[in-house]
């Protein structure tokens, strides 16, 4: 068996020499100025994944349908509590801060959207969506965001794609440009300046070659250190972000957009949507999550108002929840849910998609909202219309469907 | 210039004369298979590889112990796992309330403190435990039967789960572990099986039980099976009545669905009580797909993925021995494959623990925790039931956290943690368990004449140390 597989690559001649002779001195990229990286018109994609299965029915509420109220005697939002959008659908009251964006056409909703994955497993459904395939059983070893970045193959910025999370999400796997971090402030090598610089040079020599995943990641990390160190301060936000992980992630995404460091994709996430027990209605667990979501989105829209013509935010979740409530006043794993689209390029002020209805015969076993829009129809439209991507099939393999008009 | 000349030039430039210092380590490198000297970093030393896989990382003292006992006997001892614990470790653990109070009494402690003490114990045991394989398997099962301590009251229930489920059965047999896990209040709470009621079944546990604990996602069950299994477990809950031992398992017949069920084609007759769920566990524990799934995960953890023959062999052993975990581990740990298989990425917890071990650090296990948060692997805080990921791609964002930990550790800035001077030990050998050679790390250390702390930090930060 050949020994030199993934991890321990052979040390190449170059690195051997460089290491031994002390030739490597920092990354080549650090010599390119930030200004040269700037493409002020480059589109930016912000993907927010709501992990755990967001209850779409109690987010964008079909309050005009009697079945909804019958199926959820305790959890249904009463008509007088929802923020009506069109006489049939209404926002959960915790989404109040999104109403102006919806009314002014910057925010669109897609309802009854989801994947073809019927396992109702978080991991399978997330895995399908993050890899951009119809169902988890379909092959695609990389994530759709990674493939999108590979397709664009544009800027050399190590800050092309950032996940504000501890762990790189599956959607970013299979590319080399993804880095995961919790906060830009933490993104530095600790120690006295001179020492830290010296240490950085040594690290650059150690990570100079090697094509395995971790060594490549080491190089990207060193480059990103250079960039973040030189990041200009953020202008003060016009609308405060919530004091939450999500609020901070959006604030820092905005900072990177303002700074023009070549950010192309930001992947954000918010967990906690797996509301099997005591999810609450107008208040409680689910409402608190929505409140954070709405205020974060709204503050972000205000913060980057000048850039909203090139920024598109996509909010998605792996599945919705059972149409009827369970004994624990929660809801079990279901099928369709909602997606939200924010940006000046969206066909806002509308709830898109075909509403399948909640009558017994229109539900999917064992009592779930039917998926009438493939989530890839929405993503393909975003990629084609907003990201100006021609070869959408390279990012969403096997998807042949049409868009649904959710983009302007 | 050919490769050899280039190599020599580099070495002369660095002032190294590694061929002259050809100790036992290097001889085995040069002598092994067809590896030439240019193919570096070298094949791991058997001792280093053994300690990196069977234990939580290389350390000069541990290597001496394995060498003197003999590798095979040392592995047998690890399988027995009956070494007396280090008295200092025992003392540290005694100070932790979570393992000395009953679940009901624990409720007086704030959640954060309970979680911290659990994490602290995990670090302490992994660094100092003499039964290192046991700790490795505890880590393995803690992922397999993941419990998110921040869910409702799970934090206060987790210490009992840790002691009487995971640690007790980590090297026992799988069906036993599975049965105890199913009745563990922490698991009942985490996967909502305590809220699984007659007429209103909650499918959470039923699904994860088959998808993640036993059969595996393509293990041959259907949505119908998930619903039937959920019905079997109705009435399983946590004791919460006065005058009883609160926080223990309880079967509540008033919430049990006594109707007939069919699970994986097997009929479970009407009228059964708690035994319906037990029957399900039995069916799953005996299922060949469970054997394959568990075997595959164990093989992945110890020799990396894509080893079909080993998976089949361990699955066979599972079926022959009724899921005896040691019986599966023994041939794998004693195999040449363990020594020869490609490297496996260290996850952050492994990185931190192996760093502390390599440097003989003294730690209270508490000060290092925030670094693990930074790197994304804070024990008992993975919300999803699949456990922390093992793929290297998942951890590419953790390198900066690792570098900063190494820097702080060698500067003495990690709270509650000190590193002895380690006089005399050569940095590459102390951390990587091999002689310094012609690799870029060794060359860099030689050339730059770094201070000892800086050299050690660099070793911990090197690409090579990120693998086991």
Secondary structure elements and pairings:
The complex is a heterodimer of chains A (408) and B (468).
Chain A: H1 13-21, H2 34-37, E1 44-50, E2 60-61, H3 66-71, E3 83-84, E4 90-91, H4 99-103, E5 107-114, H5 122-131, H6 144-152, E6 161-163, E7 178-180, H7 193-206, H8 213-229, H9 245-259, E8 265-270, H10 285-303, E9 311-317, E10 337-342, E11 351-352, E12 373-374, H11 375-386, H12 392-395
Chain B: H1 3-14, H2 24-31, H3 46-53, H4 60-69, H5 71-80, H6 87-94, H7 103-106, H8 111-128, H9 132-144, H10 154-169, H11 174-182, H12 185-190, H13 204-213, H14 223-232, E1 236-238, E2 249-251, E3 261-263, E4 266-268, H15 274-285, H16 288-303, H17 308-321, H18 325-333, H19 336-340, H20 348-358, E5 362-363, H21 369-375, H22 399-410, E6 417-418, H23 427-432, H24 440-448, H25 452-461
Helix pairs in contact in B: 1-24, 4-5, 8-10, 8-20, 10-11, 11-15, 13-14, 16-17, 16-18, 17-18, 21-22, 22-25
Write structural notes for this entry.
The complex is a heterodimer of chains A (408) and B (468). Chain A has 408 residues and is of the alpha/beta class. Chain A is built from twelve helices and twelve strands. In chain A, the strands form two sheets. In chain A, strands 1, 5, 6, 7, 8, 9, 10, 11 and 12 form a nine-stranded mixed β-sheet that branches. In chain A, strand 3 and strand 4 form a beta hairpin. In chain A, helix 9 packs parallel to helix 10. The longest helix of chain A has 19 residues. The termini of chain A are far apart. The N terminus of chain A is likely disordered. By secondary structure, chain B is mostly helical. The radius of gyration of chain B is 24 Å and the shape is globular. The chains are: A alpha/beta (408), B mainly alpha (468). Chains A and B meet through helix 1, helix 5, strand 7, helix 7 and helix 8 of A and helix 1, helix 13, helix 14, helix 21 and helix 22 of B.
């Amino acid at each position: 068996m050949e020994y030199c597989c993934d991890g321990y690559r052979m040390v190449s001649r170059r690195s051997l020499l460089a290491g031994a002779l002390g030739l490597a001195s920092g990354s080549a990229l650090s010599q390119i100025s930030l200004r040269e990286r700037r493409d002020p018109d480059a589109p930016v994609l912000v993907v927010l994944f709501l992990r755990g299965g967001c209850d779409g029915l109690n987010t964008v509420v079909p309050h005009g349908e009697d079945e909804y109220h019958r199926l959820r005697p305790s959890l249904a939002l009463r008509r007088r509590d929802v923020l009506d959008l069109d006489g049939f659908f209404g926002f959960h009251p915790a989404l109040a801060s999104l109403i102006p964006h919806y009314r002014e056409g910057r925010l669109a909703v897609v309802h009854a959207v989801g994947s073809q994955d019927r396992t109702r497993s978080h991991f399978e459904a997330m895995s399908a969506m993050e890899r951009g395939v119809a169902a988890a059983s379909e092959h695609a070893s990389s994530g759709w965001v990674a493939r999108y970045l590979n397709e664009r193959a544009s800027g050399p910025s190590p800050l092309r794609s950032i996940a504000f999370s501890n762990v790189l999400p599956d959607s970013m796997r299979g590319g080399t440009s993804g880095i995961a971090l919790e906060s830009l402030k933490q993104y530095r090598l600790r120690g006295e300046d001179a020492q830290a610089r010296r240490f950085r040079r040594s690290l650059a020599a150690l990570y100079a070659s090697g094509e395995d995943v971790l060594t490549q990641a080491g190089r990207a990390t060193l480059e990103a250190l250079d960039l973040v160190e030189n990041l200009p301060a953020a202008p003060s936000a016009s609308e405060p972000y919530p004091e939450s992980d999500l609020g901070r992630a959006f604030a820092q995404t905005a900072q990177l957009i303002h700074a023009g460091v070549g950010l192309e994709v930001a992947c954000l996430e918010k967990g906690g949507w797996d509301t099997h027990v005591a999810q609450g209605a107008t208040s409680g667990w689910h409402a608190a999550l929505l409140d954070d979501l709405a205020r974060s989105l709204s503050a972000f829209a205000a913060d980057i108002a000048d850039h909203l013509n090139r920024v598109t935010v996509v909010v998605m979740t792996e599945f919705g929840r059972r149409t009827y409530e369970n004994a624990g006043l929660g809801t079990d794993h279901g099928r369709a849910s909602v997606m939200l689209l924010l940006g000046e390029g969206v066909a806002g002020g509308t709830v898109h998609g075909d509403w399948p209805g909640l009558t017994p015969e229109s539900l999917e076993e064992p009592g779930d909202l039917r998926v009438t829009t493939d989530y890839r129809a929405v993503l393909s439209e975003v990629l084609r219309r907003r990201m100006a991507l021609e070869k959408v099939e390279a990012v969403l393999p096997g998807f042949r469907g049409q868009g649904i008009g959710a983009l302007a | 210039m050919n490769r050899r000349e280039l190599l020599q030039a580099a070495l002369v430039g660095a002032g190294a004369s590694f061929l002259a210092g050809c100790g036992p380590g290097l001889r085995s490198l040069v002598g092994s298979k067809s590896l030439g000297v240019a193919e570096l970093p070298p094949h791991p030393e058997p001792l280093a590889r053994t300690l990196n896989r069977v234990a939580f990382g290389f350390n000069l003292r541990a290597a001496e112990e394995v060498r003197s006992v003999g590798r095979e006997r040392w592995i047998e001892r690890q399988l027995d796992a009956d070494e007396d614990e280090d008295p200092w470790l025992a003392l540290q653990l005694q100070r932790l309330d979570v393992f000395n109070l009953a679940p009901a009494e624990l409720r007086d402690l704030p959640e954060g403190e309970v979680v911290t003490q659990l994490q602290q114990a995990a670090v302490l045991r992994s660094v100092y435990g003499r039964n290192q394989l046991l700790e490795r398997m505890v880590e393995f099962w803690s992922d397999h039967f993941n419990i998110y301590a921040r869910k409702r009251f799970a934090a206060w229930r987790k210490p009992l789960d840790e002691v009487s489920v995971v640690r007790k059965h980590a090297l026992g047999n799988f069906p036993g572990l599975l049965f105890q896990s199913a009745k563990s209040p922490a698991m009942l709470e985490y996967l909502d099986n305590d809220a699984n009621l007659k007429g209103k079944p909650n499918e959470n546990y039923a699904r994860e039980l088959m998808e993640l604990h036993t059969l595996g996602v393509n293990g041959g069950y259907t949505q119908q099976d998930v619903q039937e299994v959920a019905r079997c477990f109705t009435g399983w809950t946590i004791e919460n009545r006065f005058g009883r031992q609160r926080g223990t398992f309880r079967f509540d017949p008033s919430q049990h669905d006594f109707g007939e069920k069919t699970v994986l084609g097997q009929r479970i007759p009407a009228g059964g009580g708690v035994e319906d769920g037990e029957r399900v566990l039995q069916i799953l524990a005996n299922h060949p797909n469970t054997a394959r799934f568990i075997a595959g995960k164990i093989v992945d953890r110890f020799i990396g993925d894509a080893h079909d023959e080993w998976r089949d062999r361990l699955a066979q052993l599972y079926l022959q021995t009724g899921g005896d975990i040691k019986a599966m581990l023994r041939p794998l740990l004693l195999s040449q494959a363990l020594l020869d298989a490609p490297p496996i990425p260290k996850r952050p917890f492994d990185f931190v623990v192996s760093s502390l071990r390599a440097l003989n650090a003294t730690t209270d296990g508490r000060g290092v925790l925030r670094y693990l948060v930074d790197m994304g692997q804070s024990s008992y805080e993975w919300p999803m039931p699949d456990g922390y990921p093992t793929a290297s791609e998942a951890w590419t964002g953790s390198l900066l956290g690792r570098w900063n930990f190494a820097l702080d550790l060698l500067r003495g800035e990690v709270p509650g943690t000190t590193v002895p001077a380690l006089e005399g030990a050569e940095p590459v050998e102390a951390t990587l368990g091999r002689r310094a050679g012609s690799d870029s790390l060794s060359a860099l250390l030689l050339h730059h004449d770094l201070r000892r702390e800086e050299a050690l930090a660099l070793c911990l930060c090197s690409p090579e140390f990120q693998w086991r």
